[in-house]
Each structure stands twice: as structure tokens, then as C-alpha cells.
Design goal:
Distance between the termini: 11 Å
Largest sheet: 3 strands, antiparallel
Number of strands: 3
Helix content: 55-70%
Structural class: alpha+beta
Mean pLDDT: 81
Oligomer: single chain
């Protein structure tokens, strides 16, 4: 196995190690207050992880949104990583190439990076409003790190056998 693939494989495992706490740990806290006649009342104080958000959306009947977040932020990233690991250990160059093409196709649908940007925009928007505040928690940083390491792993992996033989690191 070329050194590039070994580095890519290690990065995939690191990305999985970052994804798990990124899904389970709290990601964002939203605090909404209301001021009236000099009194301030707290209307909302919610801290959620990605998986808690999916559960809440499902419980509240927002099945489509919950399913989309689950699919694009959990299922596709895990499937992409497992597929790449599988492709690295297959003997058939045709099967390896097909998995590589599949991974590159589904990578466009992995919305983990878009999700991170959305959370960051929500955080920044909340900071700009008087009665709304937001705090980023460790889950956000783990998920962000997952996105970056996962993208980096794709740059190191050489799945195509012909290309792998011509690449040296």
C-alpha cells in the first residue's frame, strides 16, 4: 500500500474519532430573552447536539427535516468513510474504481460542511441581536474538525490501481 494511502487511512480513522463526539456532544446553545418594563424574562435556553436535534425534530413531527439531517450529517459521512476503507483493501481494480467513483459522487451530497457553516451563521446571527445569544460548544469544534480531516483524507487516498502505481510520496 502506498504511503499516501496509509496517511489517508489514518486520517479516515481520525475523522471517525472526531465524528462521534461531534454528533453526541452539545454543539450550540441558544438563549432568547424578552425585556418588558425593565424586567427580563428568559423565553428559551436550549443546548443541543446533532443527535439530540434529530431526536427532537422527529419527536415533534418534523420527520423530513430530521431524516435529511440524519442522512446528510451522519449516514453519508459514515458510508463514505467505510466505502473508502473497503476500497483500499479490495483486490479487484474494477471494484476499487467503482467504489472510488461512488464515494466521489456521494461526497457531493455529504452536507456535513454545509451544516457546520449553517451553525456558524446561526451563531453569528444570534450574536448580532439584542435578545438572542448563542454559544458554540465542543460538539461544534469536533464536527468541524471531522469535516476538515475527512476532506484531507480524500486528497491523500489513491484508489485507482494504475494511478497508485505511478504515485510516489
Amino acid at each position: 500500500m502506498p504511503l499516501r494511502n496509509i496517511v489517508g487511512l489514518v486520517l479516515i480513522f481520525i475523522s471517525f474519532a472526531l465524528l462521534v463526539p461531534g454528533l453526541y456532544l452539545p454543539m450550540l446553545n441558544i438563549n432568547v430573552t424578552f425585556s418588558m418594563m425593565g424586567m427580563e424574562m428568559q423565553i428559551l435556553d436550549e443546548t443541543r447536539s446533532i443527535l439530540q436535534t434529530i431526536q427532537t425534530l422527529y419527536r415533534d413531527g418534523n420527520n423530513l427535516v430530521a431524516g435529511l439531517i440524519l442522512l446528510f450529517s451522519v449516514v453519508v459521512p459514515v458510508a463514505k468513510g467505510l466505502s473508502l476503507i473497503t476500497a483500499l483493501f479490495l483486490k479487484s481494480p474494477i471494484a476499487r474504481r467503482r467504489i472510488d467513483m461512488l464515494v466521489r459522487a456521494i461526497s457531493k451530497w455529504s452536507m456535513a460542511d454545509v451544516f457546520v457553516v449553517g451553525v456558524l451563521v446561526a451563531f453569528l446571527s444570534a450574536q448580532a441581536m439584542a435578545n438572542l445569544s448563542a454559544t458554540l460548544y465542543e460538539g461544534f469544534y469536533f464536527f468541524l474538525a471531522y469535516c476538515l480531516v475527512s476532506i484531507a483524507s480524500l486528497y491523500f487516498l489513491v484508489i485507482d490501481v494504475a494511478e497508485a502505481e505511478s504515485v510516489s510520496v
